[in-house]
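hey
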C-alpha cells in the first residue's frame, strides 16, 4: 500500500504542477489572442484610411511621374505606392501588438527580436522617402535640362537629360542606403570614381577627339541668336533661306542645290550677309 501511495504521489505531483501552470497560462493566452485580434482590426482600419488619404493627395500620380510606378510594374508588383505604404503601416502596427502578445506569453526573446525589427523600420521608411523624393527631383531636373536643351535646338537634349537623371538616381540610392546605416564608404568611393571617370572622358573627348564638334555646338548657341529661321543669307557662294540652326550645322535651302549644310563655326567666322529676315 505504501508503494502504491508513493506511486500516486509521484504521478500526481507533476500533473498538479502542470495543471497549475496551465491555469496560470490560459489567461495570458486569452489576453494575447485578444491583443492580436484587436491589433488586426485596428491596423487594418488605419492602413485603409491612410492608403485612401495618400491616394487622394496624389501620391500615386507623383510616383507615376517619377517613374516609380513603371519600375514596380516591371518588377511584377501591381500594387499602387499608396496601397504599399498602407500595407507597411499595417504590419508596423501589427508587429507592435505581436510584441505585446509575446510579452504577455513570457516569450522575451521573441519580443526582443521583433522589437529590434520594429525599431529599424523607421530607418527603412526614411530610406524609402529619400529615394522617392530624390527620384521626383531627378525627374523634374531631367525635364528641365531637356527642355532647356531643346529650347537651344540641341540635338542631344534627350541623352543629356538621361545622363543627368542617371547620375541623380545613383546619388539618391547611395543616400537611401546610408539611411539604413549600411556601410557605404566603398560604394561612395566607387560612385565618385565612376562620376570622375565619366566627367574626365567627356572633358577629354570635348577637348581632343570632338574639338571641332564642340566648337560647332558652342557656335550654334550664338548663331541661333544672330540668324533667325527663314532669313535669307549669303555665306560665301551659298545663298538661300535658313531652315534651321542645328546642334553642329546650319541648314540653308538654296534654289540650285536644295538644302545645304554649313558648319555653325563657319557661320560665325565667315562673312555672312543677311538680305532679309
Amino acid at each position: 500500500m505504501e508503494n502504491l501511495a508513493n506511486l500516486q504521489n509521484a504521478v500526481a505531483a507533476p500533473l498538479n504542477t502542470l495543471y497549475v501552470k496551465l491555469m496560470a497560462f490560459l489567461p495570458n493566452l486569452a489576453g494575447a489572442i485578444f491583443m492580436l485580434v484587436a491589433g488586426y482590426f485596428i491596423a487594418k482600419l488605419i492602413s485603409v484610411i491612410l492608403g485612401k488619404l495618400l491616394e487622394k493627395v496624389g501620391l500615386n500620380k507623383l510616383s507615376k511621374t517619377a517613374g516609380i510606378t513603371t519600375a514596380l510594374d516591371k518588377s511584377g508588383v501591381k500594387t499602387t505606392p499608396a496601397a504599399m505604404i498602407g500595407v507597411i503601416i499595417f504590419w508596423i502596427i501589427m508587429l507592435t501588438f505581436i510584441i505585446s502578445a509575446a510579452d504577455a506569453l513570457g516569450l522575451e526573446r521573441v519580443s526582443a527580436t521583433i522589437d529590434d525589427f520594429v525599431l529599424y523600420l523607421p530607418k527603412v521608411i526614411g530610406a524609402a522617402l529619400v529615394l522617392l523624393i530624390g527620384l521626383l527631383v531627378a525627374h523634374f531636373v531631367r525635364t528641365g535640362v531637356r527642355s532647356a536643351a531643346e529650347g537651344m535646338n540641341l540635338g542631344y537634349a534627350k541623352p543629356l537629360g538621361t545622363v543627368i537623371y542617371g547620375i541623380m538616381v545613383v546619388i539618391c540610392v547611395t543616400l537611401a542606403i546610408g539611411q539604413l546605416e549600411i556601410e557605404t564608404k566603398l560604394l561612395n568611393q566607387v560612385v565618385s570614381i565612376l562620376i570622375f571617370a565619366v566627367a574626365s572622358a567627356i572633358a577629354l573627348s570635348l577637348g581632343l577627339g570632338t574639338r571641332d564638334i564642340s566648337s560647332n555646338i558652342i557656335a550654334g548657341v550664338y548663331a541661333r541668336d544672330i540668324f533667325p529661321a527663314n532669313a535669307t543669307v549669303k555665306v560665301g557662294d551659298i545663298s538661300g533661306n535658313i531652315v534651321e540652326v542645328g546642334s553642329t550645322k546650319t541648314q540653308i535651302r538654296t534654289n540650285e542645290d536644295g538644302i545645304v549644310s554649313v558648319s555653325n563655326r563657319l557661320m560665325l567666322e565667315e562673312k555672312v550677309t543677311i538680305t532679309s529676315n
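The beta strands are 232-235, 238-245, 249-254, 258-263, 272-276. Residues 122-209 form a domain with the Helix Hairpins fold (CATH 1.10.287).
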